[in-house]
Design brief:
By secondary structure, the protein is of the alpha+beta class. Among the domains are: 54 residues; 220 residues, Sandwich (Jelly Rolls). 45% of the residues lie in helices and 15% in strands. It contains 16 helices and 18 strands. The strands form five sheets. The chain has an eight-stranded antiparallel β-sheet with strand order 3-4-5-15-11-18-9-8, covered by helices on one side. β13 and β14 form a beta hairpin. The longest helix is centred in the first third of the chain and has 45 residues. It is globular and about 115 Å long. It binds 2-acetamido-2-deoxy-beta-D-glucopyranose (NAG) (2 copies). The site of one 2-acetamido-2-deoxy-beta-D-glucopyranose has 3 residues, from α8.
């Protein structure tokens, strides 16, 4: 299209020359004026070409960025998109960045290209603005759970390891703005401050200092630090002495300060989200890998051990399994290397097309809806789908000595960015009388297989016991949910910590009471 425009420009120039020649015959007096017109035309064409070059260079850079990004991401798409910063940057490309790009294409009437793109977009393959906001929300949740330092996140560092490219001042501003929209002034303050810190290193940033300062002033005031807010308002006035909002704020802050005698530093306090009880705090601590004071002093005087076991099963005589005891009462153990690479690959393959798309909470409308980023997806695989499902079931029978005929199908779950499962019990409580039929009874035990090593986060934790299990590919956690009396063991309350970075695949099997009568003997002692 550049070529077409150029042809037209050249044609115009030729016509002009013909006109000049015509005038040459009628009046030499106008010759000079005509030659000047020619000169100015040449300049216009050159300017036009220059502008086009800039535009094309921008487009070329965008195309190259897209190409390189998709290449890197496709090489390992799951773990790539499992990084919250990568996910955010990817979504940004098709939302806020896209507006600029489509503008560049529109300028040149590249409607075919645009129409093509809109078609892909309408098919729902590409992230939307709600996904971008979801990514911002997920990142802030992770920031809280894992106590992440804002400037480290902005540098692409999660838990001390650089795992992605960094964020720009504008990205930090976007997070701050998102938090501000949610009236979350704690995060507004953190992210606006980070935007401000980054701005001096980015001369071409689309965001300016005074806009950031404006939000920062407000958030600082809202978080209770009036003195600091006043300093920020003054800083705005240094840049723009006429700034109406800054002048207003300054007056307001000054009158506020006269009334109270507030100290300079006040903590930027994280707001409580919903019920933040002791259990929730312990859950988050364990997720971070910290230890907690258990609620009751456990009988942890026994040594925690590792051993090879066969459980007298002929199938295991040649290949005994490795057991690590994680907790004694209730007993929680880890079986190591119980699933093979081939088995795990097969299970993921079987599950992938069948995974149910999870709904997510839309932070804007408050409704549950689908989003391109996912928290978790899962599916139950029955034994008849493939021999591998039966092989895994048989292995559990060999190891535990329990009856598998009343067990549920193999549940496979895939957790994405920020994917988590807050504290819960696996067994049905007394009031949930219709949860399971009498023919199978309650969920007596849980086997949870890990099918990936998770880069960061994603532990299974037991907040009442202080036990944390970090995913290890090919290993499985096992515990009984019921006491021998059949009563639910409330100490087994557990949770899946949010995935901080990487992909998390697990599969689990719930074993039921019926069929175990001779294998795990009952007791009338409710505590046993
Ligand atoms: C965050 O990390 C930066 C750089 O590592 C450090 O200078 C800063 O003090 C940290 N902030 C907090 C609140 O720990
Ligand atoms: C904040 O809210 C405004 C107004 O509703 C909206 O236009 C903007 O996209 C929101 N920004 C973010 C980052 O969520």
């Amino acid at each position: 299209m550049t070529a077409a425009m150029l042809t037209l420009a050249v044609a115009l120039a030729v016509i002009n020359i013909i006109r000049i020649q015509a005038e040459v015959y009628s009046s030499f007096a106008h010759l000079e004026r005509s030659l000047q017109a020619e000169q100015s035309l040449a300049k216009d064409i050159k300017d036009y070409i220059k502008q086009e070059k800039v535009r094309l260079e921008k487009l070329e850079r965008a195309a190259e960025e897209y190409e390189q990004h998709s290449k890197a991401a496709l090489a390992n798409s799951e773990s790539f998109m499992g990084n919250p910063i990568n996910a955010y940057l990817f979504m940004k490309r098709f939302t806020t960045d896209w507006a600029d790009l489509s503008h560049l294409l529109q300028e040149d009437h590249s409607y075919d290209l645009l129409a093509n793109f809109e078609e892909i977009r309408n098919k729902g393959f590409l992230p939307q603005l709600v996904d971008l906001q979801g990514a911002a929300a997920a990142l802030m949740r992770l920031q809280d759970t894992y106590n992440l330092n804002t400037s480290e996140i902005a540098s692409g560092i999660l838990q001390g390891v650089k795992r992605s490219p960094g964020l720009s001042a504008f990205d930090c501003f976007y997070f701050g703005k998102y938090a501000y929209n949610q009236s979350d002034y704690y995060h507004t303050l953190l992210w606006m401050q980070e935007a401000l810190n980054r701005l001096p290193f980015e001369p071409d940033s689309p965001i300016d200092r005074i806009t950031i300062l404006d939000y920062l002033t407000f958030a600082t005031f809202k978080q209770g630090n009036v003195r600091h807010a006043l300093l920020l308002a003054n800083e705005m006035l240094q840049i723009d002495p006429e700034n109406e909002r800054a002048l207003q704020n300054k007056r307001y802050f000054l009158s506020n300060l006269e009334e109270s005698d507030q100290p300079m530093t006040i903590e930027n306090k994280r707001p409580h989200r919903g019920v933040r009880d002791e259990e929730y705090e312990n859950y988050e601590k364990l997720c971070r890998g910290d230890s907690i004071k258990p609620f009751k002093t456990p009988k942890r005087t026994h040594k925690l051990t590792c051993s090879y076991e066969t459980n007298k099963s002929p199938n295991l005589l040649l290949r005994p399994f490795k057991v690590e005891v994680l907790y004694h009462s209730p007993k929680i153990v880890m079986w190591h290397d119980v699933l093979s690479e081939v088995e795990m690959k097969k299970v993921k393959e079987l599950a992938t097309p069948r995974l149910n798309r999870a709904t997510v909470h839309n932070p804007v409308t408050g409704k549950l809806e689908f989003a391109e980023y996912r928290v978790s997806k899962s599916v139950f695989l029955d034994s008849d789908i493939d021999p591998v499902v039966e092989v895994i079931s048989q292995r559990i029978a060999d190891i535990t000595g329990l009856d598998m005929s009343t067990a549920e199908g193999l549940q496979v779950a895939n957790y994405g960015m920020g994917g988590q499962y807050e504290p819960h019990f696996d067994f049905a409580r007394r009031r949930e009388t219709h949860a399971f039929s009498d023919a199978i009874g309650n969920r007596i035990a849980t086997v949870l297989f890990y099918m990936t090593d998770v880069e960061a986060g994603g532990a299974t934790v037991f907040p009442k016991l202080g036990v944390k299990v970090f995913p290890k590919k090919g290993s499985a956690a096992f515990w009984y949910n019921l006491r021998r009396s059949g009563i639910g063991d409330y100490r087994t309350r557990h949770a899946a910590c949010p995935v901080l970075s990487g992909a998390k695949w697990v599969c689990n099997k719930w074993l039921h009471e019926r069929g175990q009568e001779l294998r795990r003997t009952c007791s009338t002692n409710p505590k046993e």
